[in-house]
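FYI - complex with heme C, inputs then prediction.
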Amino acid sequence: MNIAKIGIAASVLLFSIMALAPVSFGHGDVTPQAVDTTGLKPLGEEWLEENPYTFEKAPDQMERAIEIGCSAYNSNCARCHGLGAVSGGLAPDLRVLEEDADGDSWFIDRIRNGYHQNGVTKMPKFEGLMPQEAMWSIRAYTNIRPDDDDKAAVKGTGGNCQTLDFEMVKKIELSDDDE
Ligand code: HEC
C-alpha cells in the first residue's frame, strides 16, 4: 500500500467511525477528543465573551481557526449536533445561532457549562477539556457553514474537513450572499 492509499483507507475508516458514533455513544456519554490549537495566538486566561475569530477581527487567524474548528466540532459535537454542523434533529442546529455578540455569549456559556435538565446531562460541559481557542474555533466553523442545507452540501464549504476550501469559504463569507 502506498502512502496515498493508506491516507484514503484512514479517512474511510475515520468516516465510518464518525458515522457509527451516534449509535455507539449514549446521550451524554461523551469521550472528549483533545484539540491541537497550534498556530493560533493564545487568547489568554480570561474568558472572552465575544468570538475573536471573524474575518473582520482576525483575518490572519481564520484559516487555521476554521480548520481546527471543523475537526474539533466533528469529533466532539457532531454526534449530537450533526455531521458538518447540519443537525439531524437530536440537538439544535448551530448554524442558525445568531452570529452577533448575544449568540457568542450564549454559545460560550453552553459549551463551557453544558446543559442539564432535571438532573439529566443533555449536553456535557467542555470547560477543562478544551481551551477557549478550540471553543471559539468551533464557533468560527459553525458560523462559516451556510445556513441553507443545499449550500451547506456544496463541496469545499466544510461539510467534510478533508475537502474544506478556505478560499471558497472566504469568498462566500465576504460576499454577503449567505444569509
Ligand atoms: C450529548 C449530546 C451533545 C453533545 C456531545 C454536544 N451537545 Fe450541544 N446541545 C445538546 C442539546 C441536547 C442541546 C439543547 C439544550 C437545550 O434544550 O437548550 C444543546 C445545545 C447547545 C447549544 C445552544 C444552542 C441553541 O440554539 O440554543 C450550543 C451553542 C451547543 N449545544 C454547542 C455545542 C458544542 C460546541 C459542542 C461540542 C463541543 C456540543 N454542543 C456538544 C447536546 C449536545
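Residues 3-174 form a domain with the Cytochrome Bc1 Complex; Chain D, domain 2 fold (CATH 1.10.760.10). The beta strands are 115-117, 120-123.
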